[in-house]
Amino acid sequence: MPDASSPSRHRSSRLSVRASPDELARWSQSARFLGHATTADWVRTLLQDAVLSHHCGGTVSRELRQLRGELGRIGNNLNQLAHAAHLGDAVACSDTLQDIDRLKNRTDHLLRGLRPVRVQRVRSVSVPLMH
């Protein structure tokens, strides 16, 4: 029986999220990998962390969309430079190479932030104090 101070005793509301079977399997696997007993426990932790850090989510996907747009522009520039070089024109590509290097650094920074960290979760146990 849960003790009176247990948060699960006070959980009378339900939050529902629709997911495909594949999404649910991936989330469950991620939860276990990160040391959570259940997917619900992992989701609760993510939501609580977001509340405490004021992190609204979506930052990574927005950054990825921006990177994708920049990659498209750089690819277009490279095509134009290659076309000009094939025609025998003088080609100055230092700006494009600097753009590629800058974008590579941004991508590396973003990917470092996405790497999963294996977390050892420890369940707190109430231990009576002895005097």
In short:
This protein has helices at residues 21-33, 39-53, 59-86, 94-114. By secondary structure, the protein is mainly α.
Structure description:
By secondary structure, the protein is mainly alpha-helical. The chain contains 4 helices and no strands. The longest helix is centred in the middle third of the chain and has 28 residues, at 59-86. It is elongated, with a radius of gyration of 24 Å.
Order of helices and strands: HHHH
Structural class: mainly alpha
Average pLDDT across residues?
Answer: 78
* Shape designation: elongated
How much of the sequence lies in strands comes to under 5%
Low-confidence stretches: none
Largest sheet, if any?
Answer: none
Number of helices: 4
Assembly form of the protein:
single chain
The percentage helix is 55-70%
Whole-number radius of gyration?
A: 24 Å
Query: What is the rounded distance between the termini?
Result: 28 Å
Number of strand elements: 0
Short descriptors:
single chain; 131 residues; mainly alpha; 4 helices
Give the SSE map.
Elements: H1 21-33, H2 39-53, H3 59-86, H4 94-114
Helix pairs in contact: 1-2, 3-4
